Amino acid sequence: MSSTPIDQAGIAPSILILKEDIETSDDLKLALLEARGISGNDTFTSLKEWNQAIDPALLAEGQKLARDNDHILVGLFPREGGEAFQKRAGFYSHLLQGDTQEISVTEAFQTYYERSAGATGLKATSLSGLNRKKNEYLTHSFHKYKAKFFPRMARALTNYVLPDGGRVLDPFMGSGTLGVEATLMGVQAEGIDVDPLSVEMAKLKVDAIRIPASEARKAYEHFLVAVSANQQQGLLWGESSEPNSAYELPEFIRKKITPEALRDEIEEDTRIALSALSSYSDEVGRRFLRIALSHALATKVGLRWMGTGDNRFALSMGVRRLIRVMSNHLSKMVAALEQRDLLISGGFLNFSELGSANIQRGDVRMLPYQDNSIDGIVTSPPYLPASSGRETYLRSRACSLTALGLMSEAEIMVRETEMVGSIIRTAPARSSGLPQSISELVEWMEPQRARKPKALATSAYFLDIAQSLREMARVTKPGGKIALVVSSEHVFYDLLTREIVRRVSMPEAISEIISEAHNEIPLKLDNVVKIQLPKMDYVARPASKGDYAEAVVIATKV
After folding, report:
1. One-character DSSP codes across 83-134
2. What is the DSSP string of 203-252?
3. DSSP label of 6
């Protein structure tokens, strides 16, 4: 074997060691994208193809850290790239560089972030299901949120679209996972969402990375004292909450909760929480209390839409009282910031090296950015409402939105008709700019009694996706990349036999939208990376069979 020399540009023979808990071959696909982004080159491949070109001593060190050869990637990496690797790597644990005389080992900081949420914390020597919660570390656990980004995926795709740094945008921001990860990576992020609750929770999750744990603890302690005093008042005088904390659940939810005693209990607990919140003057602490209350409501009152297109939904009610859920969650928020402090003292997090995240309420179809101002985009649009059980976004969060005074029930119903991916939004079956395959799908759905309610929503969805792509392309710099995480395909089943009767490939539909001249979208489709996901919810989608699959659609601004 012969060593690969370091060239004049400071490029060194290198080995990247994947984390020990990499679970699937699809994780490896994302890891390869990340490696190409972090390294700034496309030479990374499997060890089997490269081990003849790597110094034996370097290879031996890599094999000590990796479980087997499948968990090693080798290639050329900038000699001074260790610091960037530490802050940016998501799927990798170590970077090894050098030759026989000198081998340097750099550890990725995110490994420690993931350990911080586990049972053994930073003391763990490796990652496993017992000692890490790879999606819940630091502020990621601040609010329950369905179908949020995986932090590792957010990192991998950010690394790929921003190999040289810059500004990354997520125009379907949701709970703010990308904003948190970009901040930890030292990258500047922009986040947009039409949902005011998403904006509020994302802002706190990003800001709390820098907020002292004492601020959260003071809010938590105030909450405990205020709740105790309120309950004592109720015992003495028969009235526990203050008049300005009056609250009723949204009517469309309220009328479905039985028995009435349960409804009254939820409303009374919410009033007690709002009373505690209104009596706390510190604005920073109030933010923690507001998000903890929203999380408690989302945990206590769960809405699951039936996928029928006619607004039917089922309620699932949490067992624990809302006040108890909120109290426990505030305690966990404090603990997360205390773990953050351990990361700082251990040298794995430095405030001066964090990036920034500008998060605001807005619409992807009218982005508030100048032309050619964004370096790259990483986002995940809502799923197609024709096949997804998630027919509405705002109504699913109505309890929180109304309790926090962000929207009234009437405003929720109106705004829902305008949102991308809502089952209530409609458009003509045939519209210029729609892919031919989608027009045919809508026309196939319309005559069917069970599918008719979702037909025109499907047409509206793809027209909105076209406008969203047009806006994303407008604000992206020439040569910049856009990574869209979408469903790989949507499958339609016979309602009686459960046999598959139609398939819709989202990557192909997006390709058709981009290539349609009428749409005037200056993007070139580069690649589609399919990611298999195990099916987790057989109750929500009883008709579907097998696993779910997502796809990362990558395009370049031309």
Report:
1. HHHHHH-SSEEEEEEE-SS-EEEEE-HHHHHHHHTSSSGGG-SS--TTT--T
2. HHHHHTTTS-HHHHHHHHHHHHHHHHHHHHHHHHHS--S-GGG-----HH
3. P
Is the CB of residue 100 less than 8 Å from the CB of residue 92?
A: no
- Angle between helix 177-185 and helix 109-116 axes, rounded to 10 deg: 130
Query: What is the pLDDT, as a whole number, of residue 130?
Result: 46
Of 300, 296, 282, 297, the closest CA to residue 331 belongs to: 296
Question: Which residue do the tokens 């929180």 mark?
Answer: 400
C-alpha closest to that of 37 among 90, 115, 1, 80: 90
195 closest CA partner among 533, 500, 433, 422: 422
Pairing between β-strand 301-305 and β-strand 313-317 as defined by DSSP bridges: antiparallel
pLDDT at 76: 78
- Judge contact between 151 and 140, C-beta under 8 A: yes
Owner of token pair 């990340």 = 34
Is the entire prediction scored with pTM above 0.70?
yes
Residue 396 in tokens:
């699913």
With both helix axes pointing from N to C terminus, report the angle between 260-278 and 213-237 in degrees, rounded to the nearest 10: 120
CA torsion, points 286, 170, 174, 334, in degrees to nearest 10? -40
Q: Is 148 helix (H, G, I), strand (E, B) or coil?
A: coil
**SS3 (DSSP) at 78:** strand
Rounded to 5 degrees, what are φ and ψ at 486?
-130, 170
pLDDT in tens, 458-489: 999 999 999 999 999 999 999 999 999 998 88
Contact (CB, 8 A) for 227 and 323: yes
In this structure, the strands spanning 356-361 and 188-193 are parallel
Could you give the angle at which helices 25-39 and 151-161 cross, rounded to 10 degrees? 40
